[in-house]
Design goal:
CATH class of chain A: Alpha Beta
Strand order of the largest sheet of chain B: 1-2-3-5-4
Number of strands of chain B: 5
Oligomer: heterodimer
Number of strands of chain A: 5
Order of helices and strands of chain A: EEHEHEHE
Strand order of the largest sheet of chain A: 1-2-3-4-5
Structural class of chain B: alpha+beta
Number of helices of chain B: 3
CATH superfamily of chain A: STAS domain
Shape of chain A: globular
CATH superfamily of chain B: Histidine kinase-like ATPase, C-terminal domain
Shape of chain B: globular
Number of domains of chain B: 1
Structural class of chain A: alpha/beta
Helix content of chain B: 25-40%
CATH architecture of chain A: 2-Layer Sandwich
Chain lengths: 95, 139
């Protein structure tokens, strides 16, 4: 199961398992982001390179316009994957 | 020792079934959350890699997962495919800043970092490729 929604304050909430089969649904939401915002991983148990790629593409698009995503509430396993991917240089990650 | 084996449709949408299969393995072997996360990630990355790169291959990709002692062995077999060696893919430029990076290449980089051994074999006669992974469990 995977869910993605955007709340009134602009925060993107990710929930469940973000695998390669979920990228199309997530892409629709990320494509609409046109300002800096928080992505809340509190409900997310898992992410693979497919999800990382979408986050990266969104961040690159925003950074080109001097905006950015801030990531929060990553579980320790997801946090480790972000470190391995070298995403500490790419995102602000709230610890 | 626990060994589980199953064939999965060559489609990204088979991931749901694969995750259910891996959950059964996790329950059966009682491996910890970190090892379970690694197993799922490695299988997804290698499976999706085969689906995307080995176009024109057979309908089914076979997955075997085995826990013996403190080691997990994973094996994916793809048939009727051209050679594609995931161990030879250049490292992703993970230390570069965002402006110098491009998407892609992360999956295999993550797999190589998280496992203890990654092995690739190709049999030209049968056009079968086999990718094997060893992950040692932490004490």
């Amino acid at each position: 199961m995977f869910e993605i929604k955007r709340s009134d304050d602009g925060t993107v909430h990710l929930d469940g398992r973000f695998d390669a089969a979920q990228v199309a649904a997530a892409k629709e939401v990320f494509a609409l982001i046109d300002d800096s915002c928080v992505v809340d991983f509190a409900g997310l148990s898992y992410i693979s390179s497919a999800g990382l790629g979408l986050l990266f593409a969104t961040q690159k698009r925003l950074v080109d316009r001097e905006m950015a995503l801030t990531l929060t509430n990553l579980n320790p396993h997801i946090r480790e994957v972000f470190r391995i991917a070298g995403f500490d240089n790419i995102f602000t990650i709230d610890e | 020792m626990v060994v589980m084996r199953r064939g999965f449709r060559r489609e990204i949408d088979a991931l749901d079934e694969i995750f259910r299969f891996l959950e059964d393995f996790v329950d059966e072997t009682a491996i910890d959350d970190r090892a379970a996360f690694t197993v799922k990630l490695v299988v997804e990355e290698l499976f999706t890699n085969m689906v995307r790169h080995n176009t024109g291959g057979g309908d089914v990709i076979d997955l075997t997962i085995d826990r013996t002692g403190d080691e997990i062995l994973l094996e994916l077999i793809d048939s009727d495919v051209e050679p594609f060696d995931p161990t030879g893919v250049p490292a992703a430029p993970v230390t570069k800043e965002i402006g110098e990076r491009r998407p892609g290449g992360l999956g295999l980089h993550i797999v190589k970092t998280m496992v203890d051994d990654l092995d690739y074999r190709y049999e030209p006669g049968t056009r079968r490729m086999r990718v094997s992974v060893t992950k040692r469990l932490e004490p």
